[in-house]
Design brief:
Blueprint lengths: L1 H11 L9 E7 L1 H4 L17 H10 L4 E5 L2 H11 L5 E3 L10 E5 L8 E6 L5 E3 L6 E3 L1 H11 L14 H8 L4 H15 L4 H12 L16
Parallel strand pairs: 1-2, 3-4
Antiparallel strand pairs: 4-5, 6-7
Length: about 220
């Protein structure tokens, strides 16, 4: 089933190249950054029955890259951006859709496939029909997460800012205007500590573009 899935992804991406597979191992730097809420707290510990068997197969047969200190998503982003637009990111993780370049996510259960799509740095936002969730790409989606937080990783974001408000604040704006809006919103809620609060949330949500280069307010490459 694993090999069939990989072949299906390759067909969807119109390539016969073998993939580079990445796996996170151990604690990452984000656990130390998170102060307001513990990073990824509350996740279920139980894994699928064959989880360990597949892990061993990926590493020892398919030569998966085991990533330590940072997350596999970070290393994917770093290598993708360094490839000179010769690679495509293939992942179910929505966070990787903030990275410019080609991206693909395969269908899984009730979750629809994504792309292949060429993502711009600016990106876009889409509000769900029921107004309960946001989807998007690029900086637009990153800044929306800084406002709404990310329940999956226990990142709180800005208190009392949901998808509808984030969409109304950011949709259609330039990256500079989006950042200015986010700063003003944080100042309104955290008048004395807004810079530290915004930096924490941004660094928890921002995927590394270069090794050891954390997100800083006003510095985006």
């Amino acid at each position: 089933m694993l090999l069939e899935r990989i072949d299906s992804i390759k067909r969807s991406c119109n390539t016969d190249k073998e993939p580079v597979i990445y796996i996170t191992s151990g604690r990452t730097f984000r656990y130390d950054i998170a102060k307001r809420k513990p990073y990824k707290a509350g996740r279920k510990e139980d894994k699928p029955f064959h989880f360990n068997n597949i892990h061993v197969y990926l590493v020892h047969v398919l030569d998966a890259v085991v990533v330590t200190g940072i997350e596999a998503d970070d290393q994917l982003a770093i290598d993708h951006l360094a490839s000179g637009e010769t690679t495509i990111l293939c992942s179910r993780d929505k966070d990787l859709r903030t990275i410019p370049g080609w991206s693909f996510g395969w269908e899984l259960g009730r979750q629809a496939s994504f792309g292949p799509e060429l993502i711009t740095q600016e990106g876009y936002l889409k509000l769900s029909d029921n107004h309960k969730s946001l989807k998007g790409t690029g900086l637009a989606y990153f800044y929306s997460q800084v406002l709404t937080g990310d329940v999956a990783d226990n990142v709180p974001g800005l208190p009392n800012c949901g998808p509808v408000r984030a969409y109304s604040l950011l949709d259609g704006k330039s990256p500079d205007a989006m950042l200015s809006t986010v700063i003003e919103e944080y100042k309104n809620v955290f008048p004395d500590t807004w810079e530290a609060e915004l930096t924490e949330q941004g660094q928890l949500l921002w995927l590394l573009r270069k090794p050891d280069e954390l997100w800083q307010i006003g510095k985006v490459e």
